[in-house]
From TrEMBL:
Phylogenetic lineage: Bacteria, Pseudomonadati, Pseudomonadota, Alphaproteobacteria, Rhodospirillales
Compositional bias ranges of the Basic and acidic residues kind: 19-29, 36-50
Span list, region Disordered: 1-50
Entry protein name: Uncharacterized protein
Biased composition range(s): Low complexity: 1-16
Length: 127
């Protein structure tokens, strides 16, 4: 019985460690996806900004006054959108990292409490 308890503890600890490693890997992927999503958004927005400039210039409008303000507002909104995209992925990564730390700590606590109960069982068998 003691051997099977020890084997179960070891298997549980190994499973928790595997899960925490997997969550950490997923967190890295989420961060990379956020950076890539931000890069793509910025590239798309840059192309759109260039199209807006061309349209304004074709219309014979100077770059002073309200057209410039419109371009600046659009650039600010584009930047904000890109930052929010990355922020969302960063938060998802942080959540996965927190869960990984929690599972790793839980595995250690389970191991320690299991070791303690095994020691108690062994002491009881010797008496």
């Amino acid at each position: 019985m003691i051997v099977s308890s020890a084997a179960k503890m070891a298997a549980d600890a190994q499973q928790a460690n595997h899960e925490s490693n997997e969550l950490e890997r997923e967190a890295k992927v989420a961060r990379a996806q956020g950076a890539e999503q931000e890069r793509k958004l910025r590239a798309d927005q840059s192309r759109e900004q260039a199209k807006r400039r061309v349209a304004i210039l074709k219309g014979g409008v100077t770059t002073e006054g309200s057209p410039t303000d419109m371009l600046l507002d659009a650039a600010r909104e584009d930047d904000s959108e890109a930052r929010w995209a990355r922020f969302g992925q960063t938060e998802a990564a942080r959540a996965k990292e927190r869960e990984a730390r929690y599972r790793r700590r839980q595995s250690i606590l389970d191991h320690l409490s299991g070791t303690s109960s095994l020691g108690t069982s062994l002491i009881n068998l010797n008496n």
